[in-house]
Amino acid sequence: MRPLTDRVPKPLIEAGGRPLIAHLIERLARAGFTELVVNVSHFAGMIERALGDGSRHGVRIAYSHEVEALETGGGIAYALSLLGQAPFAVVNSDIYCDFDFARLAATAAALETGAASAHLVLVDNPPHHPGGDFSLAGGRVAAGGPRRLTFSGIGAYAPALFAGVARGARCQLAALLKPEMDRGRVTGERHDGVWMDIGTPQRLAELERVLAPGR
Fold first, then answer.
1. Rounded mean pLDDT, 154-183
2. Would you call 214 exposed, middle or buried from its count of C-beta atoms within 10 A (0-12, 13-18, 19+)?
3. Among the residues of 32-172, which ranges form H helices?
4. Which residues, in sequence order, are CB contacts of 32 under 8 Å at separation 6+?
5. Which domains are present in the chain?
6. Distance in angstroms (rounded) separating the CA atoms of residues 70 and 68
7. How many angstroms from the chain centroid is the CA of residue 91?
8. Residue 7 backbone dihedrals phi, psi, to 5 degrees
9. Which among 122, 139, 123, 131 has a CA at the least distance from the CA of 186?
10. What is the pLDDT of residue 214?
């Protein structure tokens, strides 16, 4: 997203007159998620000033400050003290979607039984990621398979999944998920609605077209 991200963090890039992260927070609030943790690193102060305590969006926001980039798994592990002991939902801040986040509340509650350690939302492979990430069959996610889908950046997780990651250590989320997939402990679903990964100026322009009045 450079040169845009040379002066503003990606979550604050605007589409439809609002920052990307604001679209997500408002959708989460409507789904009943009122306690949020926002992971910040690059231009952290700008994000905190823009979102504040979350009250303007009807939520309460706590901030987890990464000193250095820890990858997704490491970032979640670093924030565990703020996330609590119950399963929680995680959403990437550089996407736009119409996924019903209320579905994740029920999914997170189901993880408390211990039958699974994670639940992933998958989407059809976009042009920029034709190979996909994981396969989905019978409500279970696997690392291999004949028809792979793309991980949307939306999921629910049990805290125990991150218990082995030292706080402050770098860790990819996939490295934690794949062993659990092999044990049949990762559930999933396919979202066939709107989903966009806003990773380039061209995709941002497409989102602006999607959000244009009358669309």
1. 96
2. exposed
3. 44-51, 71-78, 80-83, 102-111
4. 102, 105
5. 4-211 (3.90.550.10)
6. 6
7. 2
8. -125, -10
9. 139
10. 59
pLDDT tens-digit profile of 10-20? 999 999 999 99
Contact yes or no for 183/141 (Cβ under 8 A): no
Tell whether the model's pLDDT for residue 215 goes beyond 80: no
Question: 32: number of CA atoms within 13 Å, CB side?
Answer: 9
48: left (phi over 0), alpha (psi -120 to 50) or beta: alpha
Indicate the SS3 state at residue 137.
Answer: strand
pLDDT tens, 1-47?
Answer: 567 767 888 999 999 999 999 999 999 999 999 999 999 987 899 99
**Hey, which residues does 37 pair with through a beta bridge?**
62
- β-pairing, 134-137 vs 140-142, is antiparallel
Q: How far apart are CA 136 and CA 142, in angstroms?
A: 6
Pull the structure tokens for residue 35.
């306690």
